Amino acid sequence: MDKFVIIDGNSLINRAFYALPLLTNSKGEYSNGVYGFVNILIKAILDLHPKYIAVAMDYSRHTFRNELYSEYKGKRKETPAELKPQFAILKSMLECMGIKYIEKEGYEADDIIGTLSCAYNTENIIITGDRDSLQLIDDRNTVYLTKKGISEVKVMNDESYFEEYSLKPSQVVDLKALMGDASDNIPGVPGVGEKTALSLMREYGSLDNVYQHLDELSPRVRGLMVAGKDSAYLSKKLSTILTNIDLDVSLSDFTYSFPFDSKVYEFFKNYDFNSLIKKSDLFSMDKEEKNQSQINANTIIIEDLDALKKHIKYAQQTGIVALEQVGDTLHLAYDKNCEIVLPCKVDLTSRVNFLEVLDLLKELLQDEKIEKLCYDIKSMKHFFKSYGIDLVGSKFDVNLAYYLLYAGEREVSRDNVLATYDMSEALPSVSLFYLREALARGLEENNLKKLYDDIEFPLIDVLFDMEMNGFRIDTAVY
Description:
Elements: E1 3-8, H1 9-19, H2 32-48, E2 52-56, H3 64-68, H4 84-97, E3 100-102, H5 109-119, E4 123-128, E5 141-147, E6 152-156, H6 158-165, H7 172-179, H8 194-204, H9 207-212, H10 219-227, H11 229-239, H12 262-270, H13 274-277, H14 287-294, E7 298-301, H15 305-318, E8 320-326, E9 329-333, E10 338-343, H16 354-365, E11 371-374, H17 377-385, E12 395-397, H18 398-406, H19 414-420, H20 428-445, H21 449-469
Parallel strand pairs: 1-2, 1-4, 2-3, 4-5, 7-10, 8-11, 11-12
Antiparallel strand pairs: 5-6, 8-9, 9-10
Helix pairs in contact: 1-2, 2-4, 7-8, 7-11, 12-14, 15-16, 17-21, 18-20
């Protein structure tokens, strides 16, 4: 049979939200719940290779169960403000992926999952953090329970459920009818706890059978069962996942395309899911397409000083300049739209004399108010110092940030940084703007920002001064 992965959307995004630190993209939009969800989704695709995928979502907190019992899920906390907007983001992501999500007014995601799990002749894998779905286990339905946040799952089938509870999955509902469920505020039989409920179910097999053998129970338990009969059967209704609601879908609605296309790549880029962008096996795009998607900038080769003066003025207005030397050229950018290429050698073949170029750039480079972005600040300081120019101003060192994030894993070089983040080798200075966003986010997510700001970055000037001036040693001791 074809595999059909059915995901409990609300359960997984909630678990991911609480399992991961709060994450935001460069626009300040919260995304940790969506980020955790998509990692589970991708793992399921890569590990299980399903032909079909569906994501079930709650329409609202009010369902037919609240009509049966007004206190149903009445003790649930309000959804955190940081999580609320992530449901819409999740739905947008699924639409980009071509993965169908379903929600239906008056019903819970569980009821959608139950209906889908019984609708088709497929091998169904239900991914959830909610143990309610265990009642759906049968010869075609397996439940993958997320545990330890979102990093691990426990595979639950008939055999593993029996090993844990000495019951069949079909007995889950009657067990909850007896013992209740505090998380959903299902009352069960007042006074009957888990130990007693398990004992009754193992002895009598069902709620109905317990009531048919009341005379065999101890006086205390018999009294509780008699007094709590209405509550028990109400709890059974509340606990039962429906498997026949009208969804107006067909199995073909749940097909999807993988690897993902450029729309998904753009979505991940927009939400700074940089670890996913780096995984080339997730996308059907080739490297050239990714670069085109990532960066859309013009390249301008400076052939006269008047043109350079115009771009220097723009850089002063933006308050930022990205710098990189590539062979015999110097690349500059003051925004994400324009790559400026200058000659950086002094010979008779150059249309523009580099010494004249430096005279024009000097004020810009020595202006502390203009932020400087570089792959390797120390190298650029040495380069300009050789022409008598001090490179000053607040800066960001891409290689240093990359080193802190990938220490011991990858060699630090401009080429490796560009390759890791799928940046264009033809646009090294424009790429610096994108790299700063991605690497700064990585430092935050990995709790490395303080190390970068307070220790590693200040060392750049210390090392530069040592390399320029040397340092004293005590020859008698040494």
